[in-house]
Amino acid sequence: QVQIRESGGGSVQPGGSLRLSCAASGITDRSYCIGWLRQGAGTQREGVAIIAFNGAEGYADSVKGRFTISVSTDNADDSVTVEMKGLKPEHTGMYYCAARRCALSWRRGAWYAHIPPAREFDYWGEGTPVTVSS
């Protein structure tokens, strides 16, 4: 049984930083990717970053250069962290960790993970809130 738990949300001023963590257990199929998705007020969930167990990453254009995703499989649970820097008010929302099979492509000598629509994710956490406000 796959279980996903998020932590690390909170309030921060514009320009500040936050670190979100996702603990995932039960993902035995290592072709899966784990991603972070954001849902703002009145908007649909949209992917912001995703990572495969082989380290392939993918980012939404709106967060490139600001967000960094990483994965660790050292412990009993898989852990996916996203470091968020230079936050803006538009980054406010509920952040969800979710998993689905990866869609990878080879580009310029490296693997790249595509971010699919939210409806294509199989497993979800309950979310953690992020507020960026002065």
Molecular structure report:
Strand 5 (46-52) and strand 6 (57-59) form a beta hairpin. With 134 residues, the protein is mostly beta strands. 0% of the residues lie in helices and 53% in strands.
The major pleated sheet works out as: 7 strands, mixed
Q: How would you classify the helix and strand content by structural class?
A: mainly beta
Helical content (DSSP H or I, runs of 4+): under 10%
Shape: globular
Strand tally: 13
Report how far apart the termini are: 41 Å
- The overall pLDDT, averaged over residues, is 95
Number of helices: 0
* Gyration radius over CA: 14 Å
- List the uncertain runs: none
Oligomeric description of these chains: single chain
Beta-strand share of residues: over 45%
The topology string of helices and strands comes to EEEEEEEEEEEEE
Task: List the topology elements.
Layout: E1 3-7, E2 10-12, E3 18-25, E4 32-39, E5 46-52, E6 57-59, E7 67-72, E8 78-84, E9 93-101, E10 104-107, E11 110-113, E12 123-124, E13 128-132
Notable features of this structure?
mainly beta; 13 strands; 0% helix; 53% strand
Give a brief description.
The protein is mainly beta and 134 residues long. It has strands at residues 3-7, 10-12, 18-25, 32-39, 46-52, 57-59, 67-72, 78-84, 93-101, 104-107, 110-113, 123-124, 128-132.
